Amino acid sequence: MIRLLLSAGGLLLSGSAAQAAGMVPETSVVIVNEADGEATITVRNEDPTPALLLVTLQNLPEDLEPLLFLSQPAWRVEAGEEQRVRFMLRATAPLQVQRLKRVIFEGIQQQKLTGERIAKVGVSVRQNLPVIIHPKGLAANRSPWEGLQWRYHGQGVQVENPTPYVVRLAQEVRLMPADEQAYLPRTYILPGESLVLRLDAAARRDNRSVKLFPATVYGYAVDEFEAPLGRGNG
């Protein structure tokens, strides 16, 4: 059984992995180490026909700086064959914190002509993966969610990430001991960010901890984690 943080919006799911099709990356995340200046990932065409592999880099709305570029954005990949995609870091000031981008791998099947010479294009299958850029000299952290700080703030709960690490987690959290639900606006918290979780008007204000459901850098869910919930000034 696999639990995996999936998609751009991010849903924490559990269950057996679905049968892959289209262009399938070898891993669920791309890690680019600043010390190396580049990274590669292998993508396999699992379809029975040749296809065009298109690769697109995306910046997050919270971080629009273009830190990466591709050696090539498109390849023809034969059925069952693999293609290595190379990511390169742009020359810039030394990184102080991890940065998060996204990459889309899209497979477009070869056009087929019918007897009437009408072109048909196969269904396009997309894989949308996170790209984490790791600063040179920054130690690895297998549980960055432990550094998050939670407190009541106004009519909600504020979470702050004072660490240099990207934190990935499910959107739902539980306020304890009342076991009340609250929801993050998304499934990642960037270094230095603060997010606010709105609470129901009837929610208690005397909970003492937050139960969260974190994910590893590769998006796999780990055991739930309980963090203290403080009182804010707002």
What does this structure look like?
By secondary structure, this protein is mostly beta strands. It is 0% helix and 49% strand. The chain is built from no helices and 23 strands. It has strands at residues 2-6, 11-15, 23-25, 30-33, 38-45, 51-58, 68-70, 74-77, 82-89, 99-109, 112-113, 119-120, 125-134, 149-153, 156-160, 167-169, 172-176, 180-183, 188-189, 194-198, 209-212, 214-215, 225-231. Strands 18-17-21-23-14-15-20 form a seven-stranded mixed sheet, with no helix packed on it. It has a five-stranded mixed sheet with strand order 4-13-10-6-8, with no helix packed on it. The chain has a four-stranded antiparallel sheet with strand order 3-5-9-7, with no helix packed on it. A hairpin with a 5-residue loop joins β11 (112-113) and β12. The protein is elongated, with a radius of gyration of 21 Å. Residues 1-19 have low confidence and may be disordered.
* Largest β-sheet summary: 7 strands, mixed
Query: What is the end-to-end distance?
Result: 43 Å
Whole-number radius of gyration?
21 Å
What pattern of helices and strands is seen along the backbone?
A: EEEEEEEEEEEEEEEEEEEEEEE
Key words describing this protein structure:
single chain; 234 residues; mainly beta; 7-stranded mixed sheet; 5-stranded mixed sheet; 49% strand; disordered N terminus
Question: Could you write a compact summary of the structure shown?
Answer:
With 234 residues, the chain is mainly beta. The protein has strands spanning 2-6, 11-15, 23-25, 30-33, 38-45, 51-58, 68-70, 74-77, 82-89, 99-109, 112-113, 119-120, 125-134, 149-153, 156-160, 167-169, 172-176, 180-183, 188-189, 194-198, 209-212, 214-215, 225-231. 0% of the residues lie in helices and 49% in strands.
